[in-house]
Amino acid sequence: MQDPDLLPPAAWLREHFPEYVTAPFAAHHLEFWEWVWGLRSGRPPRGQAFIGVWPRGGAKSTSAELAVVAVGARRRRHYVVYVRATQEMADRSVENVAVMLEQPTITRSYPALGTPQRGKFGSVRGWRRERLRTASGLTVDAFGLDAAFRGVKVDEQRPDLIVFDDVDEKFDSPHATAKKAETLTTSLLPAGSSDLAVLGIQNLMVPNGIFAQLVDGRAEFLGDRHVSGPHPALRNMTYEQQGGQYRITGGEPVWEGQNLEVCQRQVISWGLTAFLQEAQHEVDNQSGGMYDRLDFQHCSWDEVPPLVRKVVWVDPAVTETDASDSMGIQADGIAANGMIYRLWSWEAVTSPEDALRRALQKALELGAEAVGVETDQGGDTWQSVYRESARSLGLDLTHLPQFRSQKAGAGQGPKVERSGRMLSEYERGRFVHVVGTHKVLERGLRRFPRVKPLDLVDAAYWSWYDLTNRVGGSGAMF
Questions:
Q1: Which of 78-92, 400-414, 416-430 shows the lowest per-residue confidence on average (mean pLDDT)?
Q2: Shared-domain flag, residues 53 and 190
Q3: Do 118 and 207 fall within a single domain?
Q4: Domain check: are 265 and 181 in the same one?
Q5: What's residue 121's pLDDT?
Q6: How many whole angstroms separate alpha carbon 143 and alpha carbon 86?
Q7: What CA–CA distance (Å, rounded) separates 398 from 242?
Q8: Residue 379: per-residue pLDDT
Q9: Which letter does DSSP use for residue 188 in this model?
Q10: Which of 194, 209, 228 is the last residue of a domain?
Q11: 111 lies in a domain?
Q12: How many domains does the chain have?
């Protein structure tokens, strides 16, 4: 058996999969394979998760499937769970891996890897569309996020590599995304071994999907992650309409295998809009809102001056269903010169209790003086939820940020009227977005009020109003 450690990844792939590797690697491909080659059996990787945000047509799934074969050949991982949005898609990827394992170049160099595992009496133990078990000891399971969770364990072995490949889908609702995140964080990731490595690969399908949240910092799971991208197919792309068709007039390809000629064919085949979304990651196109023409000011955390006051405000929904609005949370601070620094933004479908817990935790982290809630029915009920949220976190109720509430409207007018006042302050340059979760807020502002959810912008309004007008609401401390 050839020792794969003697070859760098590009040479190993060219030797064993020449028909798959037909163009030189781009920089992000090299980055990916360096991570794969750095895996060591029994040791968690430096940077538990590699999150690749690559264009459609940029060898995303092929790279992930080849990586499964590579870790099996090098005996760096022994039980792989391959996760996709649906069971059918996951089965297809495992079938692709099976085809790769059956390549003559693999069966010659790694005969046990390319041979199905057999039982005591010679029966094949695992070479099905949803599971591969090789004679070398590699197991690959397919897992679709649309299927009932059936557990991930072979004998007493736990997964030591989980691959997330195209888990977001174009028409995912906020509730569907929340359910996927719940499955990942409560079922799949906790099932991993002590040396678990996670590989995620996808283009940005939707602005609030799993991968969008991993990129912009909203995702609270896989905290030890390295994000590669988003890498578009073309940098500085220009195009124009010629004779009823769109033609690419300029741009620098990030990969030779998806050059200008290939991209032009994709534009003709997919359509321009689909190409911009699928290959260029242009999913933040919900424009035409009140704030669409603004150029937002940004700064890093190191550039934030001392802040006089900080508050966190929540605009909650009261249910957690597909038809629910999202919960919106905004944390802001005001400097001595009156500038508002937008510190943290969050929106998702979740329970009222979870939203209050998140707001309270962020308030304590930032040293905020208050947590506020916009309510429809007064603050008493939400004050109780706030108190229960604090108890669930094991906090001393006598040392909490103040609870504040404001009724929706509350003499401030409807949403658009209220937001118009905040817009005027934006136009005067009174806001600075701190880089981190700023894209979450900016997406919300740009789509407001044309496209739901609108809750984050309302939370941002009340946070700004509190800092500049010192609202009190109930103001009671427990």
A1: 400-414
A2: yes
A3: yes
A4: no
A5: 36
A6: 8
A7: 68
A8: 55
A9: I
A10: 228
A11: yes
A12: 3
Interval 426-470: pLDDT, tens: 988 899 999 988 988 998 998 898 888 889 999 999 999 999 987
Q: Is the model's pLDDT at 212 over the cut of 60?
A: yes
**463 is written with which tokens?**
């946070």
Assess contact for 302 and 437: CB atoms under 8 A. no
Residue of 2, 3, 1, 8 whose CA lies nearest to 29: 8
User: Diameter of the chain by CA atoms?
Assistant: 80
Domain containing residue 35: 4-228
Phi and psi at 318, nearest 5°, equal -105, 0
H-helix segments, 184-224: 210-216
Beta-bridge partner residues of 162: 81, 198
**Residues 178, 184: Cα–Cα separation, whole Å:** 10
Query: How many other CB atoms are there within 10 angstroms of residue 423's CB atom?
Result: 17
Rounded CA-CA distance 50/222 in Å is 9
Residue 247, burial from CB neighbour count under 10 angstroms (0-12, 13-18, 19+) = middle
CA gap 333, 341 in Å, rounded: 5
208 and 70 Cβ atoms separated by less than 8 Å: no
**Residues 374, 395: Cα–Cα separation, whole Å:** 23
Residue 449: asked if its preceding bond is cis (omega within 30°), the reply is yes
Tell me if 340 sits within 8 A of 311, measured CB to CB.
Answer: no
Contact 226, 49 (CB under 8 A): yes
Residues 48 and 151 in one domain: yes
Cα 332 to the center of its chain, rounded Å:
23
Query: What does DSSP say about strands 79-84 and 161-165: parallel, antiparallel, or unpaired?
Result: parallel
Asked if 409 and 249 count as a contact pair (C-beta separation under 8 A), the reply is: no
Given the DSSP bridges, would you call strands 370-375 and 340-348 parallel, antiparallel or unpaired? unpaired
Q: Which amino acid is residue 121, in one-letter code?
A: F
